[in-house]
Design the sequence.
């Protein structure tokens, strides 16, 4: 992870703050480049820094007893990594792994807690984001239990697209199996089904969405509901930015 000082696109949480609150907050942030597969925080470790992605996205994984991992959320420019600090919890229950390379604003935990104590506007907005995240976690749990693999895969690809702001991104079948909590063969079959209908193409870990409308139709309703939860509470993207739903944040 290296520092980057060029102009940054907005993080939606921070962009919605008043100019005064935003400027006071951002002055204590460092823009950093996030690299693919970089681990920002391990499960059970102390949270030393929080991240507000402005490009790319981060997968949030919960470890299982057999060594496997299950994704419970994705964070892009609609959210933040490090929300347990809002509850006074200093350790992360989840592993945060960069799944889409990009840029984020990073702040150390002590400065973050100070801003939340001193600025009611920041505290209120981040609490609303935490509220949305909890609702979406419940939605994801229901989705994992009741919906079949192919609609869930379509939903996950759409959420990745929204955060990558692109129709092409790097995803291996092995990682997708972790994301969906199924065996690799199940992911392969679902991906073949989407490919056969012309919705996606994939080669050597690179997936390209060819038909956004078709993929949205085959996706389970959880994709739409996740977007609605975020937008009803925190507002829609400004300036024609790509859609983003803001799943659970670590």
Sequence:
């Amino acid at each position: 992870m290296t520092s980057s000082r060029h102009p940054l696109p907005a993080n939606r949480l921070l962009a919605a703050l008043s100019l005064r609150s935003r400027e006071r907050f951002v002055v204590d942030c460092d823009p950093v480049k996030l690299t693919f597969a970089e681990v920002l925080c391990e499960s059970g470790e102390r949270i030393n820094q929080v991240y507000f992605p402005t490009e790319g996205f981060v997968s949030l994984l919960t470890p299982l007893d057999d060594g496997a991992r299950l994704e419970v959320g994705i964070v892009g420019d609609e959210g933040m990594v490090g929300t347990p600090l809002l509850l006074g919890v200093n350790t992360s229950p989840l592993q945060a792994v960069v799944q889409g390379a990009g840029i984020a604003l990073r702040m150390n935990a002590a400065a973050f807690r100070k801003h939340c104590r001193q600025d009611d506007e920041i505290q209120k907005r981040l609490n609303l984001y935490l509220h949305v995240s909890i609702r979406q976690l419940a939605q994801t749990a229901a989705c994992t239990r009741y919906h079949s693999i192919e609609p869930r895969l379509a939903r996950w690809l759409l959420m990745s697209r929204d955060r990558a702001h692109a129709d092409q991104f790097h995803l291996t079948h092995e990682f997708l199996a972790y994301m969906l909590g199924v065996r690799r063969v199940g992911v392969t079959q679902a991906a073949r089904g989407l490919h056969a209908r012309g919705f996606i193409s994939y080669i050597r870990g690179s997936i390209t969405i060819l038909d956004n409308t078709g993929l949205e139709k085959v996706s389970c309703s959880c994709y739409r509901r996740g977007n609605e939860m975020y937008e009803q509470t925190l507002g829609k993207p400004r300036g024609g930015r790509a859609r983003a739903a803001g799943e659970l944040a670590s």
About this structure: The longest helix spans residues 120-146. The longest strand covers residues 57-63. The radius of gyration is 17 Å. The chain is about 40% helix and 20% strand.
